[in-house]
Every structure is written in C-alpha cells, then in structure tokens.
Write a structure and sequence with these properties.
By secondary structure, this protein is α/β, with parallel strands linked by helices. It has 21 helices and 10 strands. The longest helix is centred in the C-terminal third of the chain and has 21 residues, at 339-359.
Length: 438
Amino acid sequence: MPACVTQMHAARRGEITPAMRFVAEREALDPELVRAEVARGRLVIPANVRHLAGALEPIGIGTVATVKINANIGNSTVLSDVRGELEKLCFAVRFGADTVMDLSTGGGIDEIREALLAASTVPIGTVPIYQTVLAVENVADLTARMLLENIEHQARQGVDYVTVHCGVLRSHIPLAMSRVTGIVSRGGALTAAWMSARGEENPLYTHFDELLDIAATYDVTLSLGDGLRPGSLADASDAAQFAELRTLGELVERAWRRDVQVMVEGPGHIPMHQIEMNVRMEQEICHEAPFYTLGPLVTDIAPGYDHITSAIGAAMIGWYGASMLCYVTPKEHLGLPDANDVREGVIAYKIAAHAADIARGRAGARDRDDALSRARFAFDWEAQFKLALDPERARAYHDATLPADYFKSAEFCSMCGPRFCSMHLTRDLQRSAAGSTA
C-alpha cells in the first residue's frame, strides 16, 4: 500500500501542517480547530502535494470556513484553446473564485491542464472521465484500468480534486428512466451508458480501493459526483437521486478509513421549499462531509439568466449548510461560457456565498456591508467602488451618466438627482437637528 500523504492523515496524527496554518490564518480560525475538522472529515483542504509545492495557496472547504465558490472553465470540441482557458482562469480568480474546475472535452487537454496548474493559485479540479473517453470510439470500450490510469496521470500533473461518479450503480439506472430530463450529468450518463452496454457494475465503485490508493499518494481530494442529480424541478428529490446519495455515504466512510479527503456533490435543480431538506439528507447520510452543490436552480424557465435562478438557490443552500457552491453562468444549457460569462457567474456566486455567510452568523461577515453602507450615506463614491464586489462595474455604472470628477463628491446620483435623494434629504435633516441643539 502506498504511503499516505493527505492532510487528513497528518491531522489524525495530531499534526498541524503549513497548509492548515495557512487556512486558519485566512479564515481567522484557531489552527487546532482546523486540524480537528480536517481529522473529522468536515473540512477538506484540496492541495495535491505537487501543486502545493508550486503556486497553490490552500483553502478550506467545510462548515467552519466561509462558503466557497467554484468556477467551471474548459474547452469543447468546437471552441477554445490554452490562451482562452488561461483568460477564463484569470477572470475567475480575479473576481473571487476559490477553486476552478477544468472541464475540457476538446483537444489539447493535457496542455491546457498543465498551463492552468502552473498559473493557478487556487485549487484545480477535473472530471477525469472526460479525457479518458476521448481515447476510445465507444464508451463501452473503456476499461477500469484506463480510468484509473488517467486519474493517476492527472494526479501526477498536480490536480487538487477530481469529480468521480462512483455512486451511480446499475440498480439505480431504472430509477432515472421515467424522469423528465433523464440523467443530466455528463459523467453520470457516460457511466450509465458503460454499465448498460457491458452489463457490469460501475468500475470506479468496484475499484474504489485502487482509487483511494491514488488519492492517498498525491493527496487528491475526491469529490463524489452526483451523477443522478436532478436536471429539472420535476425530477428533484426523487428515488434515483437519494439512492445514489446513500451509496456516496458508504463511500465517504470507506475514504475516511484510508485518511482520504472527500466531499459530496449535490443537486441540480431543486425548488426552494426542498433545499433545506436536501442539506439535512446529505449531512445525515454522508456524515457531515462537505457538501458541494451546483446551484441549485430554483426554476427552469430562465435560459440566459440561470446565473440568477441558481444564485437564489445557492444563497439558500449555503445558508442551510453547503460548503462550496459551483457557479452557473448565463450560458448554462445554451453554450460554452466565455471570459465575460465567467465574470458574471463568479460575481453572482460571490454574492450568494457572502449572503450565506451573513445568514449563518459568521463573525465579521457583515463588516464590508456596513462599511459600504456608511460610505453610501456619506456619498463617498470612491470608497463605495473600492468596497464593491465588482469595483469596475460599480464605477462604470455611476460614470455612465455622471462621469466628471465633480460628481465623485456630489450628494446624489443620476437616479434621484439633487432634489429627490433620500439620503441627501436625511443628511440635511441631521445637519438641521445638530444646528438646533448647538
């Protein structure tokens, strides 16, 4: 059995690693609390030892930490290249993504991944089956050995976490066949197609111990994929989704027995009134392993605006206990996102994550809000821009109608003007009241 180098292994030996200390400082937490949560499995630090030796700045994902967001990038068979993906990475990190997943399915995948890992200060995740399936004509030609070799190849490159659809079993497939939108996860659908064609069980389930060997050797965090997540409100919280979740709960325990870090991926499309229940189910079935969710989208009727429909659900699921939110861009369901779509998705999800931190009562979470509110009431426009999540957008919107420097100190904006600004009128009232008591 290979030597285990994971953060969980060190934590269970009582060791506070440099990565744990870095996370503790970033999160304003006691280093011992970070160690204890990593040891317990409620906090993961995705930090492949090969990436940790380079540019990586470790982060913590778990309920004791701030809510994190992930940005998906990656090329397709028809669009994008190394330069385009590096631009997306730059936009994602610049606007606040905590992790980035490379979901490339086109050419030059190794080259793209190596460039991203060399440039990225945030953890990089992948879905290894995407690259593996490109080596065969038909998905049925895949073998367990091919999958495991590709996962190890990516681990050697330095990938910090991998989405692996280990929990989709043959017995689960019939449960999804009557759905409105069927199996919407690409990895889940590929796995189901493989099992159906070959009449065999999921190879990553039957070879899970070998997968754990790889994860332990490089400290690759396993993100247990939700291959049967609902892709529409009609399919939310159904038998297929929860059958897979129960299998993931079993795999969490098996990973922890080997000191392998693990998080659990979640839905999908979920109406608002089912979100809290979904978090409770994951925490109970998966033993409080960090919950990493796509959205959820709370309505299906807004193509082109799904960064909004999903950010609503993301704020709620973060409030109820999800640890990381996978962003959705305006192009979801429609096309491959470009750099500007990445920006829109990241900002929408930074808002959602921050709102969740405030709702969860995290110490200091509201400090920036209060500072911006004071700047707004003082008409300190420069401070407002600086404190905004997207300073460039805030400044551009203000300057679209009042660009002159004079208006950077004016007690009004173009919405109300000088006569109808409520805050300006309130300030006049305060000055009058102060004068009358002098």
